[in-house]
Amino acid sequence: VQLQASGGGLAQPGVSLRLSCLASGFSLESYAIGWFRQAPGKGREAVSCITSNEETTYYSDSVKGRFIISRDNAKNTVYPQMNSLKPEDTAVYFCNAVFAFNIYWGQGTLVTVSS
């Protein structure tokens, strides 16, 4: 059972990046998926989440209007599309999957926004 976040890298302010959270060893279909980030020297922040049926999404105030979360259950993957990136978006981004009492965390992917 594994969750793997990927797609991070170095980006200039204003551009877009799309991260991925790929599940292996289990199906994401029944799971709510959350994205979190941790900037250097700061605590972990909840950024976005999407329910299993996609009816409900959540965005923190810091990313609302810029990030869009979606999921492709056929590919067992959840995608946060990050637009209009800002230097303050620099962080390690993590995903987790939650269903009933099952919670899985993935390893993070580093996003650095700098000119």
List the main descriptive attributes of the protein structure presented here.
single chain, 115 residues, mainly beta, seven-stranded mixed sheet, five-stranded antiparallel sheet, 12 strands, 0% helix
Topology:
Elements: E1 2-6, E2 9-11, E3 17-18, E4 20-24, E5 32-38, E6 44-50, E7 57-59, E8 67-72, E9 77-82, E10 91-99, E11 102-105, E12 109-113
Parallel strand pairs: 2-12
Antiparallel strand pairs: 1-4, 3-9, 4-9, 5-6, 5-10, 6-7, 8-9, 10-11, 10-12
Question: Any overview of this molecule?
Answer:
The protein is mainly β and 115 residues long. 0% of the residues lie in helices and 54% in strands. It contains no helices and 12 strands. The protein has strands at 2-6, 9-11, 17-18, 20-24, 32-38, 44-50, 57-59, 67-72, 77-82, 91-99, 102-105, 109-113. The strands form 2 sheets. Strands 2, 5, 6, 7, 10, 11 and 12 form a 7-stranded mixed beta sheet that branches. Strands 1, 3, 4, 8 and 9 form a 5-stranded antiparallel beta sheet that branches. It is globular and about 40 Å long.
Summarize the structure.
With 115 residues, this protein is mostly beta strands. The chain contains no helices and twelve strands.
Low-confidence stretches: none
> N- to C-terminal separation?
37 Å
How many H/I helices? 0
What string gives the helices and strands in order? EEEEEEEEEEEE
Main sheet?
A: 7 strands, mixed
| Approximate strand percentage | over 45%
Number of strands: 12
The percentage helix is: under 10%
Mean pLDDT: 94
